[in-house]
Specification:
The complex is a heterotrimer of chains A (498), B (318) and C (329). With 498 residues, chain A is of the alpha/beta class. Chain A contains 16 helices and 22 strands. Chain A has two domains: 234 residues, Rossmann fold, CATH 3.40.50; 238 residues, Rossmann fold, CATH 3.40.50.300. In chain A, strands 6-7-8-3-9-10 form a six-stranded mixed β-sheet, sandwiched between helices. A six-stranded mixed β-sheet of chain A has the order 16-19-20-13-21-22, sandwiched between helices. Chain A has a four-stranded antiparallel β-sheet with strand order 2-1-4-5, covered by helices on one side. Chain C is mainly alpha-helical and 329 residues long. The chains are: A alpha/beta (498), B mainly alpha (318), C mainly alpha (329).
């Protein structure tokens, strides 16, 4: 029997080994009802293994897991569900083709063991959870039609509908705008007041610190730091996760006489962004700060030709770049590193070398026939120049870490000798160490005379890498600030959200 | 022995094993010149269709219209020949009609390409629809019965030999080598395979994806027309529904040859090995008095078995 | 009140059917009559049962091209069995036997798809050849026109028959009731049972389905057994209605059936599909196959028209999706 004082979940000395690799090493963790715990760690620090152990997908090699103070001989997914442990995965694991009510109620309905659909009961259950959370969503809407933040709400509601007592949220804020994060935190506070515990698992946790009681930091499978949330801030979290200080060095000042390179003139796309004008100079790193939905990604795609603007023009060296044509844009020397590396950036199963060379096929071909030796030599050269840690250029790019994968995409564009490189979320899903190195590459590109546009909602990143930062809100450039030490993060954040 | 771990390596073993087995089971007859020659005349027509399907599959698509295209091209060519052939061998008209057939194949393929690349239709549905349309046009042209009365020269491509080697086999060998080279050594080939691996990433890498798709389907259409001409030549006639069993056979061979139906992986050598295995098997079985139907059954079983082995093997490595 | 979404395939197909009927009625006043309707219904029976099965597979994210071979196998094997072993057996027994044979062959598909995780297209392509080849090798190739008495009895079992005002004879076979029952049963399974919702779930997001504890393998197994059983039933019904059991029959229809289902709005990528749409798709295909001549198009144009309908029916939504995607980018 459970006692009211026993913690909801306790891990004692949990170790998980896969063959020679120790993914988790003697980890202790306690989560109490109504408490929010922050589990921080870089990619590969053992966070996902810990989740798997908690939900019974993996069995620990050593150590004990207790639910409500009762040691579990073997945690099965069923036992974890019965203990009220629910995970909200980064991709939410929803059914895009089904309605909101069905998504929310399906797990709970299945748990009743029913073979038939009890439509009224299921809808009532969904309605009740939505009311409890305090959001108004159309019960009948297909989930695929909802914006990301609403999908996350549906996923949270689904967990609550299954009487979740501990909600594990995997990378909960990656896809959210700041305003949506604020709303999420409100919701978490209410859930905590209801006695629900929350475990945030992320490598980007500074923004959830304020609702957390407790912080645990993993590195290489071991717990390296632990304490009250009040003892941590963004910098100390990063230090604990990486084991070193990663200080952003502001960019070298831009030559005041730098020539204009790319000028964007009253660019607009109906209903997406409007009247965007700016000039990018040779050697300049220009930031675009905007929340998700501000039109920042659409603007980037329009500059690269993936979307066709309705008004305005883009000029490179004073000559018009044809709009809506990525091949023409790239031919003129504009490159684009997309935000979603795994689906938009990489050919995951293809070799590292091919992933770099893909932009160079036509340049290394005469009459269509490839000079393969030159093609592969160039790819290998770029691997070296960007210090990609790849044992074998013929290995699938899937086998690389996030940071190295991002460098492969960068290498692809750099091999084309672009004049302007647009980076959308350059360090999303990249561990903290690689992030600094990618920022180094950006500085290096600018030093070599490229114009670089960095689009991000990671304000320290923008402040640390950009000479100038444009603030984009609701499709319009509302503000322009100096990068580096010219403005504080709080100030920028305020300009962005107000 | 790392080549044994690839699908093509396993296929090579299978091809040799089938060959040896059939030779052992049919001593004298399987290795007889007559049998070897007759095999070499039989398989090129559907093997070329399999090449076409394999190329489409490399992009993650499929071409279900290959047989329809082949028959439409053949029916048009045959109609031209039958209409304009005089009393002579008719070399001139055969060449002209064959050229028209190739253009028909090219246009049919381009139309598929436009549907897929410009209008965004799923290839399986686009080519299912156009396959019906092309077959339908062939039917409209002929009204149903076969087109007969071809000039003597029309028999050349399907029935002659060059230096003792059957001409259809030479055509197939040239096409297979050419496409293999195209896929491995040209910008178009590498783009095709990269596109198949991730179409979205290809677009974001500023690849001219629309042109790649157009070329791929145009190539499929042209290959189909060549196969159609060989069928016409061997049958000495053309009909809207010749070789209707070839569609599934072509898909089967492509998959058997290790081409990933979801795109991104496949090698022409695998397709060739798959064709050879199928032909050795069916010819050997034929000599043993096994019916066409039993062969069909064995093909089906072979497809599932090879797929099972490939899947289990790749699961073990990952 | 929900507004009508004109881009939905159901609406599009329904519109085309109406237009077709209007054209046909304009050129032949006798078109809008009971005999035309009963003909349409009769010709929809076998195709309709096939289509219902094909739709369930598409909804689950798979594709089945083997069902015609399953049907031919079950049909002919049952006919032979009845003829040689139990000539006096009634048709219900024949139907049960054929359904069971179909279910068994479907289970064979299911083993490779659910248990070994092979791609559905490849497996069913293989079993299409396998089942057909096995049937023609081991059971027989000759058509049987002298059907066992049970099947003959069934063929005479009319739901209604009569003569309309113009003196045209019409009849509707009880087999149509089977289609109705199958549609209702399948509707119930898909929409009112957790199993049915699981089918939609695995079609929409297989990984998510696994994570919420849906037994994907068992669900897939059910699907392929169910579809096999439907195919077996459709097969025996086809032979009974045609009064001949021809083992070389039916195979070749599979792509037309899938075309009907896709016309009705089922997505090849899984998770989406309705029975209404499927039946409308079948009705349209049957109309074109039977009545093209009425609207003044010679019947040799049949496959051109069906091909064009497939391109339009799938092309319009695909093109709209493409444009929407480019706009939103």
């Amino acid at each position: 029997m459970s006692t009211s004082t026993a913690p909801l979940v306790t891990l004692q000395g949990v170790t998980k080994r896969y063959a020679a690799i120790t993914a988790l090493d003697q980890v202790d963790l306690t989560i109490r009802a109504g408490e929010a715990v922050c589990l921080a760690g870089e990619n590969g620090s053992g966070k996902s293994t810990l989740i798997k152990v908690l939900v019974g997908v993996e069995q620990p090699s050593e150590g004990r897991v207790l639910f409500d103070g009762v040691a579990q001989a073997r945690i099965t997914p069923t036992a974890a569900t019965q203990a009220g442990v629910q995970v909200i995965f980064q991709d939410f694991s929803l059914f895009p083709n089904l309605s909101v009510w069905e998504n929310i109620a399906m797990t709970a309905e299945r748990a009743t063991g029913t073979r038939l659909v009890h439509r009224a009961r299921a809808r009532a259950r969904a309605r009740e959870v939505l009311d409890r959370v305090g959001v108004a969503l159309d019960l009948n809407a297909r989930v695929e039609t909802l914006p990301v933040a609403h999908k996350q709400l549906v996923a949270i509601c689904r967990a609550l509908a299954s009487d979740a007592r501990l909600i594990i949220m995997d990378e909960p804020t990656t896809a959210l705008t700041e305003r949506e994060v604020a709303r999420l935190l409100d919701l978490i506070r209410r859930l905590k007041a209801d006695g629900v515990a929350v475990l945030f698992v992320s490598h980007k946790l500074a923004e959830v610190l304020e609702v957390c009681e407790h912080v645990v930091v993993l590195r290489n499978g071991a717990k390296v730091a632990e304490g009250d949330a009040s003892e941590f801030d963004a910098a100390s979290l990063t230090r604990a996760m990486t084991g070193r200080d990663v200080a952003e060095t502001p960019p070298a000042p831009l030559d005041a006489a730098a020539a204009p390179l790319l000028s964007v003139d009253h660019l607009g796309k109906n209903g997406v962004f409007n009247d965007v004008s700016f000039t990018l100079h040779v050697g300049e790193v220009l930031g675009v700060a905007g929340l998700l939905g501000s039109g920042r990604t659409s603007l980037a795609k329009a500059l690269f030709g993936l979307a066709k603007p309705d008004q305005g023009r883009v000029m490179l060296d004073g000559v018009d770049v044809p709009l809506g044509d990525p091949i023409a844009a790239s031919g003129r020397g504009i490159g684009y590193v997309p935000e979603d590396r795994l689906t938009e950036g990489l050919f995951l199963e293809q070799s590292i070398a091919r992933n770099i060379a893909v932009g160079r096929f036509d340049d290394h071909a005469s009459g269509g026939i490839l000079n393969l030796r030159a093609l592969w030599a160039e790819a290998a050269d770029w691997l070296g120049r960007l210090s990609v840690k790849a044992p074998d250029p013929q290995a699938p790019v899937r086998s690389l870490s996030g940071g190295n994968q991002q460098r492969v995409v960068l290498a692809r564009w750099m091999a084309r000798q672009p004049r302007v490189l647009i980076l959308n979320g350059p360090s999303v899903g990249v561990d903290v160490g690689s992030k600094a190195e990618i920022h180094g590459i950006i500085a290096d590109l600018a030093a070599r005379g490229l114009g670089v546009i960095v689009i991000s909602d990671d304000l320290p990143e923008l402040l640390g890498t950009c000479h100038r930062i444009l603030v984009m809100k609701a499709g319009v450039i509302t503000d322009e600030v100096e990068g580096g030490a010219g403005v504080s993060e709080e100030d920028l954040s305020h300009r962005l959200a107000s | 022995m790392s080549w044994l771990k690839t699908p093509e390596g396993r296929l090579a073993v299978i091809a040799v094993a089938v060959f040896v087995l059939m030779a052992a089971l049919n001593p004298d007859r399987f290795l007889s010149p007559q049998n070897l020659t007759s095999m070499a005349f039989q398989f090129p027509e559907f093997a070329i269709l399999a090449l076409a399907v394999a190329v489409a599959m490399l992009t993650g698509g499929i071409d279900l219209s290959v047989v329809g295209t082949a028959n439409l091209a053949a029916v048009i060519a045959a109609t031209i020949m039958a209409t304009f052939a005089g009393d002579g061998a008719g070399i001139g008209i055969v060449v002209a009609a064959s050229a028209v057939a190739l253009v028909v194949g090219l246009v049919a393929g381009l139309f598929n390409g436009v549907l897929v690349a410009t209008f965004g239709l799923p290839p399986i549905l686009a080519t299912l629809g156009t396959g019906l349309i092309y077959t339908g046009f062939a039917l409209v042209i002929t009204g149903g019965p076969a087109v007969l009365g071809l000039p003597p020269a029309a028999a050349w491509i399907g029935n002659s030999t060059i230096l003792g080697i059957p001409t259809p086999l030479i055509v197939f060998a040239l096409l297979a080598a050419g496409i293999g080279w195209l896929m491995m050594r040209t910008a178009f080939g590498l783009k095709t395979r990269m596109f198949g691996a991730n179409p979205l990433a290809a677009r974001y890498a500023a690849m001219d994806t629309g042109r790649v798709l157009l070329k791929v389907y145009a190539l499929c259409g042209t290959l189909s027309a060549i196969a159609g001409l060989i069928v016409m030549s061997r049958a000495n006639s053309a009909k809207a529904d010749y070789g209707s069993s070839y569609l599934l056979l072509a898909v089967l061979i492509a998959v058997l040859g290790g081409v990933n139906p979801y795109g991104g992986y496949g090698r022409i050598i695998g397709v060739v090995l798959a064709v050879l295995s199928m032909q050795f098997l069916s010819s050997g079985l034929n000599l043993m008095g096994v019916t066409n139907f039993a062969r069909e059954m064995i093909w089906g079983a072979l497809l599932i078995a090879v797929m099972l082995i490939n899947t289990l093997a790749s699961r073990r490595t990952s | 009140m929900k507004s009508i979404n004109w881009t939905r395939n159901e609406v599009l197909v329904f519109g085309v059917i109406l237009a077709f009927c209007a054209l046909a009625a304009a050129s032949d006043p006798n078109f809008l009559s009971i005999p035309t309707l009963t003909d349409l219904m009769r010709n929809s029976i076998v195709l309709g049962i096939f289509a219902v099965g094909a739709m369930v597979v598409l909804v689950s994210g798979g594709i089945d091209v083997s069902f015609t071979a399953v049907a031919a196998f079950a049909m002919y094997a049952t006919t032979v069995l009845l003829r040689d072993v139990a000539p006096d057996m009634g048709w219900p027994v024949a139907f049960v036997v054929a359904t069971a044979i179909g279910a068994t062959l479907g289970a064979f598909n299911g083993i490779f798809i659910a248990l070994f995780g092979l791609p559905t297209l490849i497996v069913t392509l293989g079993t299409l050849s396998l089942f057909r080849g096995a049937l023609l090798t081991f059971i027989g190739t000759a058509q049987i026109s002298n059907l066992p008495s049970g099947m003959r009895d069934f063929s005479r079992w009319m739901m209604l028959r009569g003569t309309d005002a113009d003196g045209n004879f019409y009849s509707l076979h009880w087999a149509f009731a089977f289609l109705v029952v199958i549609v209702i049963l399948t509707w119930f399974i898909l929409n009112r049972t957790m199993l049915g919702r699981a089918i939609y779930a695995i079609g929409g997001a297989p990984e998510s389905a696994r994570r919420i504890g849906i037994n994907v393998k068992r669900t897939q197994m059910f699907i392929y057994v169910y579809v096999g059983a439907l195919a077996g039933l459709a097969g025996i019904m086809h032979a009974s209605l045609a009064r001949i059991s021809n083992p070389q029959d039916l195979v070749g229809l599979e792509l037309s059936v899938i075309a009907a289902v896709v016309l009705g709005g089922a997505r090849l990528t899984g998770g989406v599909g309705t029975l209404t749409g499927t039946l409308l798709g079948v009705a349209l295909i049957v109309l074109v196959r039977n009545s093209l001549i009425v609207v003044g198009v010679p019947s040799v144009w049949q496959s051109v028209v069906i091909g064009a309908l497939i391109l339009l029916g799938t092309g319009l939504p695909a093109y709209q999706a493409l444009r929407a995607q480019r706009r939103a980018a």
